[in-house]
Amino acid sequence: MVKLRLKRCGRKQRAVYRIVAIDVRSRREGRDLRNVGFYDPIKNQSYLNVPAILYFLEKGAQPTGTVRYLLKKAEVFK
User: Fold this and answer.
1) Rg of the chain (C-alpha set)
2) What angle do CA 16, 17, 23 make, to 5 degrees?
3) Does pTM surpass 0.70?
4) What is its main location (predicted)?
5) Are the beta carbons of 63 and 4 closer than 8 angstroms?
6) Which of 37, 44, 57, 72 could in theory staple to 48 by disulfide, Cβ–Cβ 3.0 to 4.6 A?
7) Is the separation of the CB atoms in 5 and 63 below 8 Å?
């Protein structure tokens, strides 16, 4: 099963996250299938590759709670 979830990057006390499509059994920093977005909680910026996200959602990928919130905020779900 594939999930859309956050992968932590950046340095100490300055986290930024990549939104990735990843296998459920992988760890948080494990190998991802595809990088589909970026989220910076400090600057409150995000970049979403909407066609790639919609592709994975159509294939049955489940977003985590935080990723679902970011997708709703960006109006990917209409």
Assistant:
1) 12
2) 160
3) yes
4) plastid
5) yes
6) 37
7) yes
State the average pLDDT over residues 46-59: 93
Domains and CATH numbers, the chain: 1-72 (3.30.1320.10)
Task: Say whether pLDDT at 17 is over 80.
Answer: yes
Rounded Cα distance, 56 and 11, in Å: 29
Which letter does DSSP use for residue 32 in this model? Answer: -
Element holding 3 (H helix, E strand): strand 2-11
Per-residue pLDDT of 30-52, as tens digits, reads: 788 999 999 999 999 999 999 99
Give the span between the Cα atoms of 34 and 42, in whole angstroms.
Answer: 24
H runs (alpha helix) in the chain: 50-58, 65-73
